[in-house]
């Protein structure tokens, strides 16, 4: 076992899907929020638990949305997730085919599934579409359910196809023996890897986790106490008792590496000339807000003689965007109700604002 260099831990090599993921080069293709299970630790937001589809943060209204998002990210692959993507199999198959047709066979695609719907017929459709890697997440923490038995039996079907098969489960404290059992089964069947995710809380699963006695490690982290330690224990055990490759994916990796690298790839393709790209991959620029934007725009161009290429009239957000240096000068020169701010945003489709600093 060793540290990966990405705030995570590995036994053997990283799975192919993970190699691109840590570089921020994997498009997150969310094909549906529909799922045959209702896991207590599921972190999905309420609006993603519906039959909706997203390419990263962009809602998918047409195939073109997927292609556009992949180009902006300079994606080299995609991770197909949900819900359970097999709950909307035809849609998932179509998306995989489109990505392969547009970006080539080397565009690596992996998919997560519970296994509940992984019949041989369904898996054959995914394989023929071009899926490269499949990761199973059976309901280990409810092993007496009928669905769990179906998931395990269906998982065996995956080994009839020439793709990489592995497992991916959260390190839920108190359930280490169940995860080890799953690892032994994967090893016996001929799987290549088992990914262990550090358990995290979200707005939607926090109450369920607390009710079961789980607590965050601190006010600054979304990780759950004891999860990282359990993951390390499983990797040490797995290295000695199985031939699988392992990856312990930490909460810090997702935020400090995966997301940061994805933002950087996107920022260089969406940043306008007046925007700065920060070390974290966010966009930094200035805005002016005023009741009459057309009047303000005319004032800036005609009277202040600001080049139009330095300005962007964003009617949707009710502001005029510009370089920070220009705003600093204008804030001292323009009197009245015009408000100037330095803002920092994600370069994603939803352009979440992460910071706003008043200038005047």
TrEMBL record:
<feature type="domain" description="Radical SAM core">
    <location>
        <begin position="20"/>
        <end position="239"/>
    </location>
</feature>
<keyword id="KW-0408">Iron</keyword>
<dbReference type="InterPro" id="IPR040087">
    <property type="entry name" value="MJ0021-like"/>
</dbReference>
<dbReference type="InterPro" id="IPR007197">
    <property type="entry name" value="rSAM"/>
</dbReference>
<dbReference type="InterPro" id="IPR013785">
    <property type="entry name" value="Aldolase_TIM"/>
</dbReference>
<dbReference type="Pfam" id="PF26257">
    <property type="entry name" value="DUF8061"/>
</dbReference>
<dbReference type="InterPro" id="IPR058374">
    <property type="entry name" value="DUF8061"/>
</dbReference>
<dbReference type="InterPro" id="IPR058240">
    <property type="entry name" value="rSAM_sf"/>
</dbReference>
<dbReference type="Pfam" id="PF04055">
    <property type="entry name" value="Radical_SAM"/>
</dbReference>
<protein>
    <recommendedName>
        <fullName>Radical SAM core domain-containing protein</fullName>
    </recommendedName>
</protein>
<keyword id="KW-0411">Iron-sulfur</keyword>
<dbReference type="GO" id="GO:0051536">
    <property type="term" value="F:iron-sulfur cluster binding"/>
</dbReference>
<dbReference type="GO" id="GO:0046872">
    <property type="term" value="F:metal ion binding"/>
</dbReference>
<keyword id="KW-0479">Metal-binding</keyword>
<dbReference type="GO" id="GO:0003824">
    <property type="term" value="F:catalytic activity"/>
</dbReference>
<keyword id="KW-0949">S-adenosyl-L-methionine</keyword>
